[in-house]
Amino acid sequence: SGPLLKVENLTKYYPLGAGILKKRIPVVRAVEDVSFYVEAAETLCIVGESGCGKSTVARLLMRLIEPTSGRVLIDGTDIAGLKKHELRAWRRRMQMVFQDPYSSLNPRLTAGQIITEPVENFERLSRKQRHALAADLLQKVGLAPEIMQRLPTELSGGQRQRLSIARALSLNPSLIILDEAVSALDVSVQAQILNLLMDLQQQMGIAFIFISHDLGVVEHIGRRVAVMYLGRIVELAPCEALFAKPVHPYTEALIAAAPVPDPTRARLDVPVEGEVPSPINPPSGCAFHPRCPLAVERCRMEMPPLVLMADGRVVACHVRAPATYISGQPVEAGDQSLGP
Ligand code: SF4
Ligand code: MG
């Protein structure tokens, strides 16, 4: 029985502007050729700078937007082919938690109403059932039952994010996508929420896709990490291996630029220099080449394929992960590019 979720060559281009002159409408290449899998009860992190396509991947998975091409399979079934009621069932299994609980929680509803609402979209609850469900969910996320009557504005940032998580849990999902879910919180509150998530994963067997620009957070929670740059995955590796020995120069630069909580840990010496190029007109060849200290001539000409390394990670870099060529064609990581 394969992975819970499998993403194959997912691509999303947005036309830019109204395009009165039908032809040559510039497109934003938000996500290109992204492939990965997520097993039941595991955490896959997606990291990268803002604008790298992380949130677009999340929205594609939730089917809030349609892909330009590529497939999303849940338990081996392509969600593009699902009928309306099947899609509803799929939505039930997959929930999302956003960065800003201010904008994602209805300010006019009490905490109890907020967390039972998703269930009530599917079934009618008696007063008693609703109360029991709310009490159970609050308890799961470590909130006191008194919170039930409060409005979101009467809660702290950490409490509001616990509430968002309780709401996501209400339908007993197989997978929760967390998009910068702790980024707005203080560091100490962040750690509490991350620990809560890991406890919930153990108790309930939920898988997470954890999207963040913050490597410190990712190192804390991730089992596998996909690094995105300008719409593409450039490295996908087990968390420990990635932090111990980043292979892609961009991963290395990201880790070097991140604040190091442990000052005894060696810092790498490659700053992330230069601007993030535009996804409207990405650089030729390897999109990282204008910022890459290792760039060679070939990097400007040819897009590096994702190559499977001896230790099981996949990396797209001509210098650090040279591809094997057969008849002039690179041997790509293929299905194994879904990750270690
Ligand atoms: Fe740098 Fe070239 Fe590797 Fe891209 S392919 S990361 S430019 S060395
Ligand atoms: Mg985002």
Secondary structure elements and their pairing?
Blueprint: E1 5-15, E2 27-38, E3 43-47, H1 54-61, E4 69-74, E5 77-78, H2 84-93, E6 94-97, H3 101-104, H4 111-120, H5 127-140, H6 157-169, E7 175-179, H7 187-204, E8 207-212, H8 215-221, E9 224-229, E10 232-238, H9 239-244, H10 249-257, H11 297-301, E11 307-308, E12 314-315, E13 325-326, E14 329-330
Parallel strand pairs: 3-8, 3-9, 6-7, 7-8
Antiparallel strand pairs: 1-2, 1-4, 4-5, 9-10, 10-12, 11-12, 13-14
Helix pairs in contact: 4-5, 4-6
The structure holds iron/sulfur cluster and magnesium ion.
Iron/sulfur cluster (SF4) is lined by residues 248-249, 286, 288-289, 292, 294-295, 299, 304, 317-320.
Report on this model:
The protein is of the alpha/beta class and 340 residues long. The chain is built from eleven helices and 14 strands. It starts with a strand and ends in a 10-residue tail after the last strand. The site of magnesium ion has 4 residues, from helix 1.
